[in-house]
Every structure is written in C-alpha cells, then in structure tokens.
Amino acid sequence: MVEELPSVFLVGPMGAGKTTIGKLLAKQLGREFLDSDWYIESQTGADIAWIFAKEGEAGFRERETRAIDELTQKPQIVLATGGGAVMSAENRAFLHQRGIVVYLNAPVDVQMARTAKDKSRPLLQQPNPKQILQDLYSIRDPLYRQVAHIIMPTGHTYPRYMVNQLLQQLASFDMSAITVPNNRS
Q: Residue 119's pLDDT is what?
C-alpha cells in the first residue's frame, strides 16, 4: 500500500499540527518529511519573519509558490505547507493534482492555544491575534476544503492516534480522486 501512495501534502491553519503530524506520518510511511517554510528558509538563508519584513507578504508568497511547485514534484514525500499556501490558485492546483491533500482542521481556540507564545509567526504579531486567526480561518477554510482529499479535525486527540486514523483513511483512499502527473521533472 505505502509504495503505491503518491506524496501526502498537509494543509491547514497555523497551529493545526501539520509539522507534528507530518513527521509522525512520514516515519510510519518510511518517507522523507519536508516543510515548505523550512525549505524556503534553507533556500534563502533567512527566516520567514525576516522575509515578511523585507519583502512583505506578496514577496513571501512568490517564494512559497516556487517552493510548493518544486516540493510537490518530489515522489513519495510527506509535506507540511504554510497556513497561507492555499491562498494561491496555482499552489492549490500543484497540491491537489500531485498528491493526496490532507486538511488538518483546527478550531481557532486550538490555534490560539498552540501559537500564543510563538513569536516566529509574522501574521500574529498584532494586538488581537485571536481576531486575526478567526479572520484567516474564515477566508482560508473554504480553500482548504476545496484542495483537500481528506479532512481531519485536530486538537481533540493525541497526534499518534490521529496518524493511525489517517493511515486507515490512506489505506482505503480512492486513487482516482487525484491526477498525479507521470512526467516528474
């Protein structure tokens, strides 16, 4: 089963657990785990907050689209994307057509609890981070749902249990739901 599965891409808001679940899932599948934000940082030699400060969100999103295009062409990986990756129609197409997209759906209260002390998230360095998270969720939730093949609620159970649930869903996944290009360049 594992060898037949295409890459698995995790989408969802910040604090949904994409990195935690992604690492555990990759280990279970015997695959490489990648994180698009980490990839961007390694390619630029700068952290996300610095890129936002110097290039603005638009500059960061351009870098993110290039990274998503490159990373989604890698075979049999588990990829955690940044929370805003779905804002680009191009990114949504890369993700949806090149692998199985799992939306980790975290309620705003869960996001708030998990990101409250994290100073590395540029969008939350505002006076009312909970309102920002709510606004982002309202805008992005429909896009996460649009791109997703599987939707999993998060914040209600242990990560290892979630990964076991996800593995069960992947085992019975209908491969005809995606179109993985044969010509990986």
A: 58
